[in-house]
Amino acid sequence: MKENIDTSTATGKLMLKMISAIKILNVKICLRDNVKHKGRKEVSIPDFGKHYQRYMKREVSKTQLAKELGLSRPTLDKLIKEHIAVC
Fold first, then answer.
1. Residues 9-48: pLDDT tens digits?
2. Which conformational region is residue 82 in: left (phi greater than 0), alpha (psi within -120 to 50 degrees), or beta?
3. Which of 37, 47, 60, 74 could make an S-S bridge to 64, C-beta 3.0–4.6 Å?
4. Distance (Å, rounded) from C-alpha 57 to C-alpha 67?
5. What whole-number distance in Å separates Cα of residue 23 and Cα of residue 27?
């Protein structure tokens, strides 16, 4: 929290209690709805091996392949690294 709240005054104490109540309510709602932060969705490309072989045969560049698959270059690099590790 960035604001300075003077808790020696009645207004400051009320403000602190209101902020706490809102936070508790938010936590209860999240628990009730079973909301969890799941992070980024995993990227999965069917038949990635075929795309990788095209890249290795220099039929397409990394940039072209990333565009075809709808990925960023760093994501494509990650998939290539994972594919190499599995093979």
1. 999 899 989 999 999 988 888 777 776 666 778 888 999 9
2. alpha
3. 60
4. 18
5. 6
Domain limits, the chain:
1-38, 48-86
* Long-range contacts (CB closer than 8 Å, 24 or more residues apart) made by 62-71: 69/45, 71/43, 71/45
Quick: pLDDT tens for 42-62: 888 999 999 999 999 999 999
Q: What is the DSSP string of 14-55?
A: HHHHHHHHHHHHHHHHHHHHT-----SPPP--TTHHHHHHHH
